[in-house]
């Protein structure tokens, strides 16, 4: 049961505040939350916090929050509730707000305060969840969202390729899908759009001898529909798609995942036979399918790193030669590749030789950062870095041999995005709509594939 | 009440589920539950709520229990983590007499939990990790084959990394120890000093089982010559030597040289302790201590000086020739110049002890140098699943058991006001007062003219003062048997407008509770309930600030009825 809900900007300014039960102190709760959050000792987690001491009416109040696109969405409760349920509710609220107001952010919220309060009124009553389904809510929400700039499909930059912002927001890219789901009849032309994203997150750990220690792929098929609710669609997946270790399909090695879970509204009648998913999506965002795959990746890893380290203990000169090979298919490319390599303490001065001019390397926070804006599949890049490491104080004759690399170097981690590529190999074959709009054109369908790194670590 | 769907049937069920009369009648309730379970049009919030309702239900027979479990099975496969965890909790509680069913459920929830642990939402990931730890307390091997899922990546926030390190520490076994240690070693050189230290402590924890490998890694870390690492490694060594005496030799060889890299109080204390207790095996121990003695004047931490005194006394016993001179200097300094009283007293104490004679000193100071049994004590045995089943999918695992205890304690003390009548443990899933009994309590005859004021606000201070200044107006003994839940009593008293000021925890002996009430004329009733260990009766003492016999009598009869009702419910 929720007592209050509020949204704070990243600087702690309250944007939205709603008290559902009137059993708690006033608005200063929001301020209290932010003070607590910023003053938290390092070893405590901010996700769930409790108030102690201070004035009596704040006593024993639990704050549970998520951070979403730079905003804090917070609920308070005085009961011992299910944390999973509350966090789910918060992220659902974030999605709903995004659906109604456009991409979440401080500006969007403060422009659409009326819509947000209206939405909250419907979603939560006296602190209990009523409904979060788009279907139900659209009957009650009257206010229209204010959009900062009108969206035009022909504005190519916004339909865009896979943008750079994914690393921050970790959501499917392209701002085309981030506008609100308008309910007005006026702009019919914009409504006939469907976005289907296959997004995979990749976590990999490679040992220093090059052997693969861990591969983990978390995949999602996300749908954002601007079509009227109730129109049926069919999504065809790769036919060789196998679930579990034992299933066999087709003649090739197939595409294998360990576990799949579907949204409850999905109809799986044709899934077994033809790998077709049928559903009638409500307007707005929906995660159709989630899947996981670990330790058993059939396609080669996108990147391999061949490091060689030379370390002269006497002079303190450290030379690191990094060769990065991209094993993607020739036509694919990786974007926004960044290599992060922690260095021993106190490294000063970096000299570099990079294999192409668009790359950049610098020292930041005790680590080497090597930026490669674009890496073509099948290509190989290299960088030679020389650093001076001050000699550790004390006698040099300490147990370690002189050729071993200094402690504190590595492991290297890579972050990148791979547009139009899925590491599991899963593809959407087709997206068919049963819905035929009475008027003009066919609906626009956008199917996108993307993989990005969650943690891609290579030990040195 | 959440929205449970749109159809009329559902609305009816909604009403039925909240109706105390139906809840009292088991057959009707069971019927309703069967229908609720079969409802297919619930959204995830409705499902979570229904699962919550069902926690109150006690199946009558084994058959019915498995019937319910089968009906609910689909909830375990739900896509929403909230529903899956709610179903898990319900299964664990329903199957409390069937450990194999519980284990089975925990195996099935492994997949969803691991998925949540690597979820994009950090908050969800954190909560899931806390629950993983909870499960590991009972089933240590449960996640061992998935250890790679708990490796940290550098972009994760601090609090998640710390949780993951804890999990890694708990799931280590013979097969994965090599890989886990290698991973942890990587964290020890992390840029964040806090995280590096947490990783070192974690290796220290693993060292209790896999001593040799861990001591080797820790020794290598000393070679880094970095302050924040060295100090933690030395502290880990100290704790380890006490628990696992077999590693003493290795530790003693690693120690020389570390004194240069330790600046903080904790690290110094650990090093000095090690030098004192195991000084006879470390060749340069007296010289290191001598440095400390030389600089004792500029030492800022009194605790370090105390440790130094004790260590030097011990070392003096094993290597008298090298230590005699500096011990004299240190004692002189501590007695004559030291300003901290505790240090001075300790100095004087050792001085007088030395005057008694060396044999006496040996008898007192040469205590055992290790105590391996302590390790067994510190590792709590595998806790049964039932001990935490009711805490699953609540805030308790997120805060941790001990922190939760302090939170609910200070809430309990605060919550005597009427605005927050329930204590949190109560709402979790504690045994509710069956509805029919509650009603009867409410229908108590408000005997005579006694009207108790509902919103009495009395601070504990004021209560104590008044209590001490008054004489006992009435004393009585009521029969009482066995255990009960203090929350239940508190609830029941609340219903008749008697506030609880303070109360011992459940099961404590002697058990005491202080109550207060006020009638509409302003007359205060202060009450003490006392339950001693041996006799099977509850002693009631009532004090009154105005002497009026008739109101006193009616107050006591109210109190008697409430206590009598609780006694009945219990039996």
UniProtKB/TrEMBL annotation, chain A:
It is a peripheral membrane protein. GO terms for molecular function: protein domain specific binding. The keyword Protein transport applies. Its main location: other. Residues 191-459 form the MHD domain. Keywords: Endosome, Golgi apparatus, Membrane, Protein transport, Transport. It comes from the Eukaryota. One of its GO terms (biological process) is autophagosome assembly. InterPro entries: Adaptor_comp_med_subunit (IPR050431), AP2_Mu_C_sf (IPR036168), Clathrin_mu (IPR001392), Clathrin_mu_CS (IPR018240), Longin-like_dom_sf (IPR011012), MHD (IPR028565). CDD domains: AP-4_Mu4_Cterm, AP4_Mu_N. It is found in: Early endosome; Golgi apparatus, trans-Golgi network membrane. GO terms for cellular component: AP-4 adaptor complex; clathrin adaptor complex; cytosol; early endosome; trans-Golgi network. Belongs to the adaptor complexes medium subunit family. Adaptor protein complex 4 (AP-4) is a heterotetramer composed of two large adaptins (epsilon-type subunit AP4E1 and beta-type subunit AP4B1), a medium adaptin (mu-type subunit AP4M1) and a small adaptin (sigma-type AP4S1). Interacts with tyrosine-based sorting signals on the cytoplasmic tail of cargo proteins such as APP, ATG9A, LAMP2 and NAGPA. Interacts with the C-terminal domain of GRID2. Interacts with GRIA1 and GRIA2; the interaction is indirect via CACNG3. Component of the adaptor protein complex 4 (AP-4). Adaptor protein complexes are vesicle coat components involved both in vesicle formation and cargo selection. They control the vesicular transport of proteins in different trafficking pathways. AP-4 forms a non clathrin-associated coat on vesicles departing the trans-Golgi network (TGN) and may be involved in the targeting of proteins from the trans-Golgi network (TGN) to the endosomal-lysosomal system. This is AP-4 complex subunit mu-1.
From TrEMBL, chain B:
It holds the Pfam family Adaptin_N. SMART domains: B2-adapt-app_C. InterPro entries: AP_beta, AP_complex_bsu_1_2_4, ARM-like, ARM-type_fold, B-adaptin_app_sub_C, Clathrin/coatomer_adapt-like_N, TBP_dom_sf. It comes from the Eukaryota. One of its GO terms (molecular function) is clathrin binding. It is a peripheral membrane protein. One of its GO terms (cellular component) is trans-Golgi network. Residues 452-564 form the Beta-adaptin appendage C-terminal subdomain domain. Transmembrane segments: none annotated. Its main location: Golgi. It is found in: Golgi apparatus, trans-Golgi network membrane. The keyword Transport applies. Keywords: Golgi apparatus, Membrane, Protein transport, Transport. GO terms for biological process: intracellular protein transport; protein targeting; vesicle-mediated transport. Component of the adaptor protein complex 4 (AP-4). Adaptor protein complexes are vesicle coat components involved both in vesicle formation and cargo selection. They control the vesicular transport of proteins in different trafficking pathways. AP-4 forms a non clathrin-associated coat on vesicles departing the trans-Golgi network (TGN) and may be involved in the targeting of proteins from the trans-Golgi network (TGN) to the endosomal-lysosomal system. Belongs to the adaptor complexes large subunit family. Adaptor protein complex 4 (AP-4) is a heterotetramer composed of two large adaptins (epsilon-type subunit AP4E1 and beta-type subunit AP4B1), a medium adaptin (mu-type subunit AP4M1) and a small adaptin (sigma-type AP4S1). Interacts with TEPSIN; this interaction requires the presence of a functional AP-4 complex. Interacts with GRIA2; probably indirect it mediates the somatodendritic localization of GRIA2 in neurons. This is AP complex subunit beta.
């Amino acid at each position: 049961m929720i007592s209050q809900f509020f949204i704070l900007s990243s600087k702690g300014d309250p944007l939205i505040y709603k008290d559902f039960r009137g059993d708690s102190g006033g608005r200063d709760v929001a301020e209290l939350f932010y003070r607590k959050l910023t003053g938290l000792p390092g070893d405590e987690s901010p996700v769930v916090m409790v108030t102690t001491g201070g004035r009596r009416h704040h006593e024993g109040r639990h704050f549970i929050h998520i951070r979403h696109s730079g905003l804090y969405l917070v609920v308070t409760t005085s009961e011992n509730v299910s944390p999973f349920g509350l966090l789910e509710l918060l992220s659902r609220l974030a999605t709903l707000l995004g659906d109604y107001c456009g991409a979440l952010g401080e500006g969007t919220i403060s422009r659409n305060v009326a819509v947000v309060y209206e939405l909250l009124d419907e979603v939560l009553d006296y602190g209990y969840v009523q409904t979060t389904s788009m279907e139900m809510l659209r009957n009650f929400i009257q206010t229209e969202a204010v959009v900062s700039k009108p969206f035009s499909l022909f504005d190519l930059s916004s339909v865009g390729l896979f943008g750079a912002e994914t690393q921050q927001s970790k959501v499917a890219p392209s701002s085309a899908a981030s506008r609100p789901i308008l309910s007005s009849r006026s702009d019919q032309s914009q409504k006939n759009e469907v976005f289907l994203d296959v997004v995979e997150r990749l976590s990999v750990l490679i040992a220093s001898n090059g052997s693969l220690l861990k591969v983990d792929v978390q995949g999602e098929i996300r749908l954002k529909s601007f079509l009227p609710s109730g129109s049926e669609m069919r999504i065809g997946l790769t036919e060789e798609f196998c679930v579990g270790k034992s299933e066999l399909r087709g003649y090739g090695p197939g595409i294998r995942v360990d576990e799949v879970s579907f949204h409850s509204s999905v109809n799986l009648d044709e899934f077994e036979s033809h790998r077709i998913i049928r559903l009638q999506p409500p307007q707005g965002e929906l995660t159709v399918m989630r899947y996981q795959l670990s330790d058993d990746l059939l396609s080669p890893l996108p990147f391999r790193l061949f490091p060689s380290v030379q370390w002269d203990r006497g002079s303190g000169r450290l030379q690191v030669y990094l060769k990065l090979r991209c094993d993607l298919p020739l036509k694919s490319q990786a974007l926004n590749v960044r290599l992060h390599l922690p260095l021993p303490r106190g490294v000063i001065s970096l000299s570099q030789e990079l294999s192409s001019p668009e790359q950049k390397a610098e020292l930041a926070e005790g680590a080497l950062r090597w930026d490669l804006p674009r890496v073509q599949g099948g290509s190989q890049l290299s960088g030679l870095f020389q650093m001076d490491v001050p000699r550790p104080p004390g006698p040099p004759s300490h147990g370690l041999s002189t050729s071993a690399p200094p402690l504190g170097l590595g492991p290297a981690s890579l972050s990148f995005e791979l547009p139009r590529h899925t590491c599991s190999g899963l593809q959407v074959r087709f997206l068919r709509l049963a819905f035929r709009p009475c008027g003009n054109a066919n609906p626009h369908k956008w199917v996108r594939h993307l993989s990005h790194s969650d943690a891609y670590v290579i030990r040195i | 009440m959440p929205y449970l769907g749109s159809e009329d049937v559902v609305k009816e069920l909604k009403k039925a589920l909240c109706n105390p009369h139906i809840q009292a009648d088991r057959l009707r309730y069971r019927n309703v539950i069967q229908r609720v379970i079969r409802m297919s049009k619930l959204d995830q919030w409705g499902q979570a709520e229904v699962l919550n309702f069902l926690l109150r239900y006690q199946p009558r027979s084994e058959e019915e229990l498995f019937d319910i479990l089968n009906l609910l099975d689909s909830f375990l496969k739900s896509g929403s983590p909230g529903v899956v965890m709610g179903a898990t909790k319900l299964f664990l509680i329903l199957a409390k007499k069937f450990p194999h069913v519980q284990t089975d459920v925990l195996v099935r929830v492994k997949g969803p939990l691991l998925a949540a642990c690597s979820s994009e939402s950090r908050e969800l990931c954190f909560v899931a990790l806390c629950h993983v730890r909870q499960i590991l307390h009972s089933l240590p091997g449960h996640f061992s084959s998935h250890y790679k899922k708990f490796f940290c990546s550098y972009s994760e926030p601090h609090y998640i990394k710390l949780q993951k390190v804890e999990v890694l520490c708990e799931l280590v076994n013979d097969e994965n120890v090599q890989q886990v240690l290698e991973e942890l070693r990587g964290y020890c050189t992390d840029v964040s000093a806090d995280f590096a230290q947490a990783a070192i402590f974690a290796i220290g924890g693993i060292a209790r089982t896999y001593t040799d490998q861990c001591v080797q890694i820790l020794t290598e870390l000393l070679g880094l010559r970095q302050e924040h690492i060295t100090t933690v490694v030395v502290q880990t060594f100290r704790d380890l030597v006490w628990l696992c005496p077999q590693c003493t030799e290795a530790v003693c060889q690693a120690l020389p040289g570390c004194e240069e890299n330790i600046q903080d109080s904790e690290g110094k204390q650990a090093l000095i302790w090690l030098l004192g207790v195991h000084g006879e095996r470390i060749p340069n121990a007296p010289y290191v201590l001598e440095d400390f003695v030389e600089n004792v004047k500029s030492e800022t931490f009194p605790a370090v000086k105390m440790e130094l005194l004790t260590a030097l006394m011990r070392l003096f016993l094993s290597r008298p020739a090298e230590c005699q001179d500096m011990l004299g200097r240190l004692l002189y300094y501590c007695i004559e110049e030291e300003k901290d009283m505790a240090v001075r007293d300790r100095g004087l104490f050792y001085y007088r002890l030395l005057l008694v004679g060396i044999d006496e000193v040996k008898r007192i100071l040469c205590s055992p140098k290790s105590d391996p049994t302590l390790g067994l004590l510190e590792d709590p045995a595998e806790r049964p699943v039932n001990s935490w089943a009711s805490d699953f999918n609540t805030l308790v695992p997120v805060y941790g058991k001990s922190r939760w205890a302090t939170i609910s304690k200070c809430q309990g003390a605060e919550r005597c006001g009427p605005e927050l009548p329930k204590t949190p443990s109560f709402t979790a899933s504690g045994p509710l007062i069956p509805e029919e009994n509650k009603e009867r309590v409410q229908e108590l005859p408000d005997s005579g003219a006694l009207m108790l004021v509902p919103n009495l606000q009395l601070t504990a201070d004021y209560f104590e003062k008044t209590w001490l200044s008054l004489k006992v107006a009435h004393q009585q003994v009521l029969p009482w048997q066995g255990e009960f839940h203090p929350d239940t009593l508190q609830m029941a008293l609340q219903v008749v407008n008697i506030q609880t000021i303070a109360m011992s925890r459940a099961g404590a002996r002697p058990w005491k509770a202080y109550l207060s009430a006020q009638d509409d004329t302003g007359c205060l009733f202060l009450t003490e309930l006392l339950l001693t260990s041996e006799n099977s009766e509850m002693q009631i003492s009532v004090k009154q600030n105005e002497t009026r016999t008739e109101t006193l009598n009616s107050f006591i009869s109210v109190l008697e009825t409430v206590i009598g009702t609780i006694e009945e419910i219990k039996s």
